[in-house]
Amino acid sequence: MARPFVEFDRVTLTYGEGEEATPALDPTSLGIAEGEFVAVVGPSGCGKSSLLKLVSGLLKATSGNVVVAAQEVTAPIKIVGMAFQNPNLLPWRSTLRNVLLPAEIVQPHRARYRRDKAPYVERARQLLRTVGLEGFEQKLPWQLSGGMQQRASLCRALMHEPSLLLLDEPFGALDAFTREELWAVLQALWMQKPFTVILVTHDLREALYLADTIYVMSARPGRILLRRNFDLPRPRTLDSTYDARFVQALAELRAHIAEARTPVPAFA
Ligand SMILES: Nc1ncnc2c1ncn2[C@@H]1O[C@H](COP(=O)(O)OP(=O)(O)OP(=O)(O)O)[C@@H](O)[C@H]1O
Fold first, then answer.
1. Which residue's alpha carbon is at the smallest distance from atom 14 of ligand 1?
2. Which SUPFAM superfamilies match (predicted)?
3. Ligand 1 site residues, Cβ closer than 6 angstroms
């Protein structure tokens, strides 16, 4: 069997030291295949964002090893694209120039971009077309709706063709309709040329719509309670969410999340 693209070998994470120590992640081992779409769900504060930071090298494991693309992660890695709940577009740059940002920063693209911008501009325009933002290339972020900004942020995350996309609740701040539209957009981008995705979300329907594999984490310190494969055919649509297999998997995940949460003490 091929080596996983992302590997955690008994990884733990503790923030702070001594009396201030906060254990965030209990020993965690997992393997994610190249091109796999993974969703991570779990109660608030269970360590989902920390897990992404360990993968990207923004945080160093307290013990254990994190390996990405056969390299041990010891510093921030370059092959990664990221998007968060807040689109974080630079307000003074047009949509197109926001999407082009990674080409200006990440090597080896930076050097190539300086020599010849045209292929990058074409890729940025193509990405914007795919997410339905054709015609908005020259608009500034404040001229876009929240959903449009998040579309642009996804394009920016994919600009430098990262082999790994890390998404931290990217649709969390959007209304339900826009969120559902963006599931289809993200799925379409991924289906064009599957890259490895780790999506952190609180939305179990989102996890099942998008992912091949769903990890359920326990309350802090986080550990993996369940790894659930979900192979409903793609492209999945909103109709897929009424499929009996979807409904059953949703009920299963709900039950595990209920277990994962620390019980709230009853009022006397
Ligand atoms: N810089 C830090 N210093 C100390 N503790 C931290 C730090 N960052 C996170 N923590 C703690 O580690 C735990 C895990 O945090 P993390 O942000 O990974 O959780 P999460 O599952 O992403 O939460 P949420 O779903 O609410 O966004 C939390 O209980 C948090 O209080």
1. 47
2. P-loop containing nucleoside triphosphate hydrolases
3. 15-16, 22, 24, 42, 44-50, 220
Tell me, what's the ipTM?
Answer: 0.95
pLDDT tens digits, one per residue of 183-196: 999 999 999 989 99
If you take atom 3 of ligand 1, which residue's CA is the nearest one?
15
Cβ pair 68, 77 in contact under 8 A: yes
Would the CA dihedral through 146, 147, 152, 158 be positive or negative? positive
Q: What is the CATH number of domain 1-79+165-263?
A: 3.40.50.300
Residues 71-115 have pLDDT tens digits of 999 999 988 999 998 999 999 999 999 999 999 998 889 999 999
Instruction: Give pTM, 2 decimals.
Output: 0.93
Distance CA 155, CA 87 (A): 11
* H helix or E strand, kind and range, residue 166: strand 164-168
